Amino acid sequence: MPATSTFAADVIQTVTAHLAGRIPAAYSRCRALVLTGSAARREATIARRPECIYWLSDLEFLVVVPDAENLRVAGEALDGLAAAIGKDLQSQGLRIKLELTPAPERYFARIRPHLFGYELKRCGRQVFGDVNYLDRIPSFDWRSIPLDEAFRLVSNRLIELLELRLEQDRRSLAEQFYAVTKTYLDLLTALSLPAGSYAPGYQARFGARRAVLQWAVEQGCSLPASFLGNLEIAFQFKLDPDSRFHFLWVNGQQDLPAALEREGLRCFWDELPEAALAVWRWFASRLAGRSESCQEDPPHVYPVWARLRGWSRLLLHADPIPRLPLAARAVRLFPHGSPRSLVYSCGARLADPHAGAKEDSLAWVSRFLPLPTPNGHADWRELAEACVSIWRRHLRHSHA
Question: What is the pTM of this model?
């Protein structure tokens, strides 16, 4: 194991042990604490800098709560606790974005085949609690994970790319670079599922990269020629951010494209939207049963029952939007898709660097966005902010 990886593993162990005592003490209704994500797989991106230790990956925990718990109230309380703990850790020289998500006890037994559930079962680590909730997750083979899970993963990364463009001047170079890195790696993750090479971990999936990419191209996915080289840069940074990326830590600089151009790495930024959109359109076409992508109507990637569930959930939780106008919009948009598929389609339109800001694209997004924007003639930024906001509030932690 490289020295940097050993260092990261030590940091993960130390911080996890600290939080396993602190979170249950601060949130008395916590029944158990389950570590998920890259930290659970021991693949967290942790950089050692003179001024601080930067944990670029999110540190993600499921906080198990009683079934009767109000999840919205619990989520708000845990968000406040995560922010307070993050400030304390930063004062100790450790910069971490801590994410605490409430999960009712019944959640684990009800998990059905999807990527998060499979990796939670295989790689999750319960660090507090008398009952082993991970044992309650039904066992399933990864080959039973439906293809729309890969589409969902790619779509989420596209929305995050929109968010990155909106917040670029508020993020450090390293944070921006990490967001790009994660997108490259998860495009490979998504393609590995239909290619038959999926495994729960970046290292295993990266080992099969050439076979997966060759399969994808043979199946009609139009990846740019530079994709493999950019994927290798992303993997190196993911697991060893201290090796060759010192330019990311220059204070006061936030223009990532300019920094990459000075290092001869500009295509790492420029060609990501093309690659992400190629993979997104390929999945959308397959799920919709189309031979090629259609630009006039959102792809029908989810069945009618999923549309019903998605619109019902949105209508129930979309305060303070007036119910009657929203219901009318739901009736109009229902034939075109679920809130999730429409947000994903709008995000893909806006993420297109060549056409996303054109008037016809903006009009298209205004028509199909599930929740209306206050300004009927919104510009690219307003529509992108609306798209990201809907995704964050209503879709990110839900399969509805």
Answer: 0.92
